[in-house]
């Protein structure tokens, strides 16, 4: 669970500091840079799994394409001589993970702060484009005594906080950076403190982060941090992927675009050898029936043993059976989220852009309720019935804003900010609503309902309003 993100120098994120709860809705007009927050989270996740070069190639460029030019990641990256990106992420990591060899690992402590600084090395020789460089990397614990003031979102101390925060740690970091002979040296420190000396490496030559290199249970806390960051996903459901049938040998886990929806639903319905899959199909169908205009009688996964394919079938009240390829884009996206809701194995962070896309205005309430229900209930104990799953959405829809709990809202705009080269530039700003938990934490200036009234202005007769918490 990502509880806090700090970014400086990445695209138009300069000096950004934001706290997250179980569910967060970032709202603002197009062009403010809301998606850059998701890019930053995705980049950190990629860096926990891939090399610096490969991670950079998978993040959106300045025009939305994935071009692999590392300069696209830096503020004013094509004109600046001194390029630096600084990240900090505070996270709650899983209490048990598996290493790359299937062995269990348990972190020494489950509340951590990860810091990363990246630079840019200009091209040399026949190279035309430079490369990212690792300048500093640190991973340290956050003490359990600090947790009550750091976890500002409403939650149960006995049911939630006590269940997800475990362990003790002294003053030593798990990953540290020091300067020796003018060179940054990164060291990995083992949890026990008595099994050998820290492992040093020169930062500038590193092709990847230290976190991404930990694959075994010898460093369980670093491994848990890596697994947590790997679980941060950006959901970009595509109708073409959601309409596709699965072969019997395809994965049974839905990917970020929605591929393998039939196989995923089939796996969930038969989880633990359950001989009554209809219970799962009925729950998904009942949730899908929340969409007005859709008369749902049932749902099933068709097993074609001749073609060896799995396909989703929707059964209407009229008796008509519709394959997934016949469903509307909005219905397919809603169905995919209903399936995720039933899957306790899906944990970590889900980022989703504009959940209102393809949804009739009359069904926005059902969509908002669904994405909110995907997130863990921090007033209860996490488990199979309440997976430790976090959701962040962004939107430009005033209707979505008025349906979301004000405590979960952040408003995006831009403000003139001092840039790394000393000039003034437009940077993304995320501000909470006044009198909500983020506003009480400070120091960001909150917005009032009067401030956002122009944004909430809708055509006459829409009868939309922002309720007081």
Automatic annotation (TrEMBL):
UniProt xrefs under InterPro entries: ATPase_AAA_core, P-loop_NTPase
Pfam families tied to this protein: AAA_21
All residue ranges annotated as the ATPase AAA-type core domain in the record: 296-401
SUPFAM superfamilies according to UniProt: P-loop containing nucleoside triphosphate hydrolases
This protein's record includes keyword rRNA processing: no
Keywords for the protein's UniProt record, in alphabetical order: DNA damage, SOS response
Gene Ontology process terms (BP): DNA synthesis involved in DNA repair; double-strand break repair; SOS response
GO terms, molecular function: ATP binding; ATP hydrolysis activity
Keyword Membrane: no
Protein name, entry field: AAA family ATPase
């Amino acid at each position: 669970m990502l509880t806090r993100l700090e970014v400086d120098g990445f695209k138009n994120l300069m000096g950004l500091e934001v706290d997250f709860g179980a569910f967060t809705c970032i709202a603002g007009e197009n062009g403010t840079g809301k998606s850059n927050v998701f890019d930053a989270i995705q980049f950190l996740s990629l860096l926990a799994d891939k090399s610096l070069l490969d991670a950079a190639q998978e993040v959106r460029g300045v025009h939305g394409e994935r071009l692999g030019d590392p300069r696209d990641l830096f503020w004013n990256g094509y004109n600046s001589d001194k390029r630096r990106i600084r990240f900090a992420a505070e996270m709650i990591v899983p209490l048990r993970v598996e290493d790359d060899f299937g062995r269990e690992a348990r972190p020494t402590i489950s509340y951590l702060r990860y810091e990363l600084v990246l630079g840019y090395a200009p091209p040399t020789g026949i190279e035309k484009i430079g490369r990212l460089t690792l300048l500093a990397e640190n991973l340290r614990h956050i003490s359990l005594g600090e947790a009550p003031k750091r976890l500002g979102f409403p939650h149960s101390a006995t049911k939630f906080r006590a269940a997800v925060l475990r362990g003790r740690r002294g003053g030593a970091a798990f990953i540290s950076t020091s300067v020796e002979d003018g060179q940054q040296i990164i060291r990995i420190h083992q949890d026990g403190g008595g099994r050998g000396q820290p492992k040093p490496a020169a930062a500038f030559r590193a092709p990847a982060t230290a976190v991404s290199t930990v694959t075994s249970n010898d460093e369980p806390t670093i491994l848990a941090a890596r697994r947590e960051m790997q679980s941060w996903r950006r959901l970009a459901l595509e109708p073409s992927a959601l309409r596709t049938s699965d072969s019997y040998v395809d994965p049974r886990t839905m990917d970020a675009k929605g591929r393998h929806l039939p196989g995923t639903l089939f796996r969930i319905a038969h989880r633990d050898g359950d001989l009554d899959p209809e219970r799962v199909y009925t729950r998904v169908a009942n949730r899908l029936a929340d969409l007005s205009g859709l008369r749902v009688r049932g749902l099933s996964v068709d097993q074609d043993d001749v073609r060896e394919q799995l396909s989703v079938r929707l059964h209407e009240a009229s008796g008509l059976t519709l394959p997934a390829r016949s469903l509307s884009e909005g219905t397919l996206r809603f169905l995919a989220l209903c399936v995720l809701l039933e899957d306790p194995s899906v944990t970590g962070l889900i980022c989703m852009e504009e959940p209102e896309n393809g949804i009739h205005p009359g069904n926005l309430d059902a969509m908002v309720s669904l994405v909110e229900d995907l997130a863990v209930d921090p007033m209860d104990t996490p488990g199979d019935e309440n997976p430790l799953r976090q959701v962040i959405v962004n939107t430009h829809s005033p209707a979505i804003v008025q349906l979301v709990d004000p405590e979960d809202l952040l408003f995006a705009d831009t403000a003139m900010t001092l840039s790394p080269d000393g000039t003034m530039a437009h940077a993304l700003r995320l501000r909470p609503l006044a009198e909500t938990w983020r506003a009480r934490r400070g120091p960001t200036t909150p917005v009032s309902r009067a401030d956002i009234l122009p944004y909430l202005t809708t055509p006459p007769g829409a009868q939309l309003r922002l309720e007081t918490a």
